[in-house]
Amino acid sequence: MFKRILVAMDDTEPGRHALGKAIELAAVTGAQLRVLHVLDLADLARDAEFVNWSEQSAERMNAGQALVDAAVARAREATVDADGVLLPVETKEQKVDETVVAQAADWSADLIVLGTHGRSGLSRLLHGSVAEAVLRAAGRPVLLFPPEKDE
């Protein structure tokens, strides 16, 4: 089955939900789990006078690393063999989805797990869909978890 599961997550409800499901799957299959957080720094205004890019970048890197560390700790509490990677995207030419796909290939992941925001229509058009782009380019199985519906 799956030996190496890459879960790409952010600090959102869908990201946390996908992490939980990836941990469950890794625990059942005995797979290694790699937690990936791709930190998009390209949106920081480097030329704006009121923004200290270095300070903002460092703060976001620290928060991103804390997210990865907490996710890895959560997996290890479930007795899952886990590690974590924080990868910054610093230019508009770099894409979050391409970074996820490249990390999956570099690490030889058997499966990529992602949460989706469930956007549609204009919102999806304006924000794009990282999950959809990963699904199209991954070249390996991708498991997507939509937001949980309140019942």
UniProtKB/TrEMBL annotation:
Name of the molecule in the record: Universal stress protein
Family matches, as Pfam families: Usp (PF00582)
UspA domain residues: 1-145
UniProt source species: Thauera sedimentorum
Family (UniProt): Belongs to the universal stress protein A family.
Database matches in InterPro entries: Rossmann-like_a/b/a_fold, Universal_stress_UspA, UspA
